[in-house]
Specification:
Elements: H1 2-29, E1 34-38, E2 42-44, E3 51-56, E4 62-64, E5 70-72, E6 77-85, E7 89-99, E8 103-106, E9 110-125, E10 128-129, E11 135-136, E12 149-153, E13 156-157, H2 161-170, E14 176-182, E15 185-191, E16 194-195, E17 201-202, E18 205-221, E19 226-229, E20 245-252, E21 254-259, E22 268-272, E23 278-286, E24 289-294, H3 297-300, E25 308-309, E26 319-325, E27 333-342, E28 353-357, H4 360-366, E29 377-380, E30 383-389, E31 400-403
Parallel strand pairs: 1-7
Antiparallel strand pairs: 2-5, 3-4, 3-6, 6-7, 8-18, 8-25, 9-12, 9-18, 9-20, 10-11, 12-13, 12-14, 14-15, 16-17, 18-19, 19-24, 20-23, 21-22, 23-24, 26-27, 26-29, 27-28, 28-31, 29-30, 30-31
Length: about 400
């Protein structure tokens, strides 16, 4: 009986130790390696007992962050931090990029975007029939998968579907040396094109080199001429992967229709970029939005007198705010919302706030935040907060959307 009790006690203690270890591992993994804050903004880290964060200043002196894991940094630049266990065992290094406080002009207007991929994106694969009427899969055993990007053939860079097609046809069925990118890793393989007609050869790959659409422009920063739009990245419709772009164009667009969201249907803001005027260039597509430089400010159609500060995270409050967007071809308009929850500890993705639409006019027109409105600027107490996000619109009838994210 005693032996059984001892064994049960040992098992319980072992499970307890494993649970504690697991808790610390999860806590450590959830602390981001890189953070970005504004000058003077307080950043927070969720730490457990025994975990400390040390900061080294310019003189090499070590300062320990408070037990709450909160710290305000008033000097711009990159601050090096170290996460330690019981002040002796260094767990990992952290970087905090402190950027100067700045001002922006909230926009809220609809604009068109054309993106061109870095290389040629593989969006599908299919069996093909050769000129001999046999079925082939040239891509089989090459390692190429949907979502990969083909960047060169026989050491010659390819950036368009047209270039890839020409090189495949010029091969006359001889092996091609393909260089492609898989999960940010560059790989090589050999593939033999299959002749499907008198002059045509194929690889069995469905490919794409561009994407286009419309969305809401979030803000314009006068000091750098930078703009941000969408509040989330553009992903390929077939692969679901974030599109890695080489370049892009930012153009004016027209609102054609507003499809109101209903239960089970998110709704959509439909627009056209046909005959649009070029506003600027797109240089980055990230999970937080699309960024670029404005070349023709007049085409952006904004009121430059509306410049305002960006609110620091600890300035954002629960309660009333407004969302700035355009649902027609006129200037943007502010609509009433309420901030219901703030996720101050979130530094690593676009899920930072939950809001409720309170404006009857907006609800009547859209039913909530619909697709195409995700870059709409959020403003509170005369300061810019950033943007909402369209993915909330899975359930627009609940009148919920979120600042850079959503809460289901």
């Amino acid at each position: 009986m005693k032996n059984k009790l001892k064994k049960a006690t040992k098992r319980t203690l072992l499970l307890l130790v494993l649970l504690i270890i697991y808790t610390y591992v999860v806590a450590i993994e959830n602390i981001p390696n890189n953070m970005v804050v504004f000058e003077g903004e307080t950043f927070s880290l969720n730490t457990l007992f025994g975990l400390t964060v040390n900061i080294e200043n310019g003189n090499g002196i070590i300062e320990t962050v408070s037990n709450s894991g909160e710290k305000a940094i008033n000097q711009t630049g990159t601050q090096k931090l170290a996460l330690n266990l019981f002040d002796s065992l260094k767990i990992k290094k952290l970087n905090v990029d402190v950027i100067p406080k700045t001002t922006v002009i909230p926009v809220g207007n609809i604009a068109g975007l054309k993106l061109y991929t870095d290389g040629v994106l593989v969006v599908g694969m299919s069996e093909i029939e050769g000129i001999d009427n046999k079925k082939y899969k040239p891509f089989q055993n090459t390692g190429i998968e949907e979502g990969d990007r083909i960047i060169s053939i026989n050491r010659n860079y390819v950036s368009t579907v047209k270039e890839l097609t020409q090189k495949v046809n010029q091969s006359q069925g001889k092996d091609l040396q393909i260089e492609y990118v898989h999960n940010e890793e560059t790989r090589q393989c050999s593939i033999t094109p299959i002749k499907t007609s008198g002059t045509e050869y194929k690889l069995g790959l469905w490919v794409r080199d561009s994407a286009a659409g419309v969305g809401t422009v979030t803000f314009y920063e006068p000091s750098t001429k930078m703009f941000a739009a969408l509040g989330h990245g553009i992903t390929d419709i077939d692969t679901g992967e974030l599109i890695n772009i080489s370049s892009g164009t930012f153009i004016t667009s027209r609102v054609l229709n507003v499809k109101k969201g209903q239960s089970g249907s998110p709704g959509k803001l439909q627009g056209s970029i046909e005959n649009g005027k070029e506003i600027g260039e797109i240089y980055k597509n990230t999970q937080f939005g699309v960024y670029g430089e404005v070349k023709d400010l007049s085409a952006l159609n904004i009121d430059t007198s509306k410049e305002m500060e960006i609110a620091m995270r600890d300035e954002i409050q629960l309660g009333d705010a407004t969302i700035l967007c355009s649902l027609d071809n006129q200037t943007s308009k502010e609509y009433k919302i309420e901030i219901e929850k703030i996720y101050k500890e979130n530094d690593y993705d676009n899920k930072s706030m939950k809001i409720r639409i309170k404006d009857d006019e907006l609800i009547e027109k859209t039913g909530g935040i619909i697709q195409g409105m995700s870059g709409a600027a959020v403003i509170q107490n005369g300061k810019f907060i950033r943007s909402s996000n369209e993915r909330t619109c899975k359930r627009p009838y609940r009148r919920l959307c979120c600042f850079w994210g959503y809460d289901d």
